[in-house]
């Protein structure tokens, strides 16, 4: 009886370990931001989390991890889950690159868009080719003049139905579409940032949804 109980307990433990939920939230050189059973962990290649998940490799397109003795390849190709929650508020943590910049992946119109956090930008700012790829409708959009590092230029004011970053999803977000190729990467400006709580801690930028 005792032996059978030990076997059953062993199977239960193995089942629980196999059910561990691991999702890839960000890639930063040889490091990756993982969500493990709802907890955020930033690991460098070769490091293991307190939950026992080991990051084997991080590239620009995927991460390889070892979970419960099995290797898994994780990518950012699927929308991030709304389970990205800590202390009952959705939270995203971004690691600075070597130049001190913060980048993230956002979802607009169901498509993944790399963005660069820019607290000096008034709004989320798209270049024209990216706006076309996302299917943003500029017909009837208000035309405005905006100041850039290259001087004054024209842009169109648009309204995004939703912008999702990690578990943070905001609706009716204002954005601008520039008429040329600037900015080369979409700028995550204050029409989004002003609607979340934001702080820096040990080189990590923390964005947290408000109630």
UniProtKB/TrEMBL annotation:
What is the top-level taxon of the source organism? Bacteria
Cite the EC number: 3.4.23.-
Pfam family of the protein (one): gag-asp_proteas
Q: Which CDD domains does UniProt cross-reference here?
A: retropepsin_like_bacteria (cd05483)
Biological processes, Gene Ontology terms? proteolysis
- Signal peptide boundaries: 1-19
Q: Which InterPro entries match?
A: Clan_AA_Asp_peptidase_C (IPR011969), Peptidase_aspartic_dom_sf (IPR021109), Retropepsin-like_bacterial (IPR034122)
Keyword Hydrolase part of the UniProt annotation: yes
The GO molecular function terms of this record are:
peptidase activity
* Key words, A-Z: Hydrolase, Protease, Signal
Instruction: Give the protein name, as stated in the record.
Output: TIGR02281 family clan AA aspartic protease
Record the organism. Microbulbifer spongiae
């Amino acid at each position: 009886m005792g032996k059978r109980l030990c076997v059953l307990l062993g199977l239960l433990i193995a089942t629980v370990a196999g059910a561990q939920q691991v999702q890839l939230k960000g890639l930063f050189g040889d490091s990756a931001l993982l969500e493990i059973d709802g907890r955020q962990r930033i690991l460098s290649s070769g490091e293991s989390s307190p939950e026992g998940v080991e990051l084997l490799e991080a590239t620009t397109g995927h991460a390889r991890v070892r979970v419960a003795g099995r290797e898994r390849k994780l990518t950012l190709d699927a929308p991030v889950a709304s389970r990205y929650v800590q202390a009952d508020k959705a939270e995203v943590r971004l690691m600075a690159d070597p130049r001190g910049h913060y980048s993230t992946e956002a979802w607009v119109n169901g498509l993944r868009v790399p963005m660069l956090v820019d607290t000096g930008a008034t709004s989320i700012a798209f270049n024209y080719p990216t706006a076309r790829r996302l299917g943003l409708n500029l017909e009837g959009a208000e035309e405005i003049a905006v100041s850039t590092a290259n001087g004054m230029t024209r842009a169109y004011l648009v309204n995004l139905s939703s912008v999702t970053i990690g578990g943070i999803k905001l609706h009716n977000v204002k954005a601008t579409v520039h008429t040329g190729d600037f900015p080369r990467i979409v700028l995550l400006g204050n029409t989004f940032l002003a609607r979340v709580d934001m702080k820096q801690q040990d080189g990590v930028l923390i964005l947290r949804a408000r109630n």
